[in-house]
Design brief:
Helix content is 36%, strand content 18%. The two termini are 32 Å apart. It has helices spanning 3-22, 49-55, 75-79, 92-104, 140-149, 169-176, 186-195, 216-227, 234-245; strands at residues 63-67, 84-88, 110-113, 125-131, 151-160, 201-204, 247-250, 253-256, 264-270. The model has no long low-confidence stretch (mean pLDDT 92). With 272 residues, the protein is α/β, with parallel strands linked by helices. Helix 3 links the parallel strand 1 (63-67) and strand 2 (84-88).
Length: 272
């Protein structure tokens, strides 16, 4: 099986499993409705390592396309430095937060295109970037090819080495009684790019520790949300079993037993 086929199979299996756990059809409206506000961020912040890494790549005269730019976590900050940012984001809930943030901070050089990247009609730009989006893309080859064809100078991709919720795979099995189909991450992306004849630069940023919460209630909310569990169900009873015996105290807070840290990969390649 090729790397592209493996990616497609892995991503599709994850989506099917997730929708089944939620009792939803495979198309269920705006996934981010009700959660988009949590992605709002101050575009003038200076303590964001990942953003600072992006800012170092952007020139004042650049036009940028942010593929799956969400609520503008990165695009609004980039717009303060470059000529223009086009955010391609299919979630209307995310775009509403993006546009509100732009108004709030007086940022006028951001345009939102509220359709999927695959069908977006946008002009090429100097930089095409995508941060923490590709995990969920099933048909990865045309998605990446379009990013590549629309970049005049640089393509940039941020992904964790593993899918961000991969650390919950063991808990998923305890709660749902089946092995979790994890989404692909940067490790799989590199094989896909090589198979496409693209040989990117890759930089691994400093490792982060495992996710923690200050109390059990924080983990209860996290596990119910990530595992699609409703209070009072049999699955919720199993969540409580995990909370009773599966947490460990660390200097940073409560963590899942056996959970590992993670590293962010930044892949980029130049054009021309």
């Amino acid at each position: 099986m090729s790397a592209i086929q493996q990616w497609r199979q892995q991503a599709a299996a994850h989506h099917i499993q997730s929708f089944r756990a939620q009792g939803l059809p495979e198309t269920s409206g705006d996934f981010w409705q009700g959660n988009a506000e949590s992605f709002r961020a101050d575009p003038r912040r200076t303590d964001d390592r990942d953003l600072n890494h992006l800012l170092a790549m952007v020139r004042p005269q650049d036009a940028v396309i942010d593929v799956g730019g969400g609520a503008g976590r990165y695009s609004l900050a980039l717009a303060l430095k470059c000529r223009h940012v086009t955010v391609v984001e299919p979630s209307e809930a995310m775009v509403a937060v993006l546009e509100d943030g732009a108004r709030q901070h007086g940022i006028t050089n951001v345009t939102a295109v509220t359709v999927p990247w695959e069908t977006a009609a946008v002009e090429p730009a100097d930089i095409v970037l995508s941060t923490h989006v590709l995990y969920t893309v099933v048909d990865i080859e045309p998605f990446l090819s379009k990013m590549d064809s629309h970049a005049r100078r640089l393509v940039v991709v941020h992904l964790w080495t593993e899918f961000p919720q991969a650390y919950l795979a063991t808990v998923w099995q305890q709660v749902h009684g089946e092995e979790r189909a994890n989404l692909p991450g940067m490790s799989e992306l590199m094989s896909v790019l090589w198979e496409m004849g693209i040989y990117p630069n890759l930089e691994m940023l400093d490792a982060e520790g495992p996710r923690t919460y200050p109390d059990v209630e924080g983990w209860r909310r996290e596990l119910r949300r990530r595992l699609y569990v409703e209070p009072g169900t049999e699955q919720d009873r199993r969540v409580e079993q995990v909370l009773a015996s599966g947490l460990v105290q660390t200097p940073q807070g409560l963590a899942l037993k056996g959970a590992k840290g993670r590293r962010l990969g930044v892949a980029w390649w130049g054009k021309g």
